[in-house]
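Quick one, tokens below. Sequence please?
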């Protein structure tokens, strides 16, 4: 996916002479407080960040068709217990495993089908579990390709990080403008988020549009989320830059 070109940064600075402070009565024990200079630097800047998926869902399907109901149930139950035990031994909690079972009569036989959905936050453990089950259960279990997604918490974190990064970039640009004119940057007077964009990736859903031919890394890349943010800020210009601080 081609990434959008970020908008050019806009920098506006007002470097007018500092007006003389208005007369004011001196407070007890000191001189009059300094009046605001009225000089400002206006800066707009942007940032773009990405975040890989933090969850993966794997579905395992298995079944048995026997002439006796008990035999069909027993065949599936043994494999279900092995799958659950293997996952637990590798740190998967019960709350991240969901089992659904379907028992039916087909002509003069009994059919037992089951599906296990396991959610992983550690993709290395996911590969270890899947490789073990393929090795031990073979064709008696069908493992679907992993579906990668973002939790709402991960998406919120990306949004906050890209906004903070945009504000940081904007402040650094304002500092560079002030240094160009030998001035010192003051406190922020206004910070406004002007535009945010998000693309790519997806949050939790049960359907994946990725074809089965994709590799694991390609699936992770397809599920990576991107966000951009543009902010506008106004900073006070304090005055001449302190030469000692400039050398530091």
């Amino acid at each position: 996916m081609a990434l959008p070109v970020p908008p050019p940064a806009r920098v506006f600075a007002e470097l007018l002479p500092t007006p003389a402070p208005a007369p004011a009565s001196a407070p007890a024990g000191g001189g009059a407080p300094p009046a605001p200079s009225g000089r400002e630097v206006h800066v707009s800047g942007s940032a773009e960040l990405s975040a890989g998926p933090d969850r993966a869902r794997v579905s395992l399907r298995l079944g048995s068709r026997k002439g006796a109901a008990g035999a069909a149930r027993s065949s599936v139950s043994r494999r279900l217990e092995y799958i659950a035990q293997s996952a637990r031994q590798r740190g998967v909690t019960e709350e991240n495993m969901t089992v659904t079972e379907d028992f039916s009569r087909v002509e003069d036989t009994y059919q037992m089908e089951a599906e296990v959905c396991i959610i992983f936050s550690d993709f290395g453990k996911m590969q270890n579990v899947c490789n073990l089950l393929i090795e031990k259960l073979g064709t008696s279990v069908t493992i679907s390709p992993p579906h990668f997604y973002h939790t709402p918490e991960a998406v919120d974190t990306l949004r906050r990080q890209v906004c903070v990064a945009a504000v940081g970039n904007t402040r650094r640009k304002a500092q560079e403008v002030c240094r160009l004119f030998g001035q010192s940057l003051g406190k922020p007077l206004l910070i406004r988020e002007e535009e945010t964009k998000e693309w790519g990736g997806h949050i939790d859903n049960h359907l994946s549009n990725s074809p089965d031919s994709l590799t694991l890394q390609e699936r992770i890349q397809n599920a990576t989320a991107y966000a951009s943010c543009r902010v506008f800020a106004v900073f006070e210009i304090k005055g001449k830059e302190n030469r000692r601080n400039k050398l530091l």
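Confidence is low (pLDDT under 50) at residues 1-5, 11-16, 20-35. The chain is about 30% helix and 35% strand.
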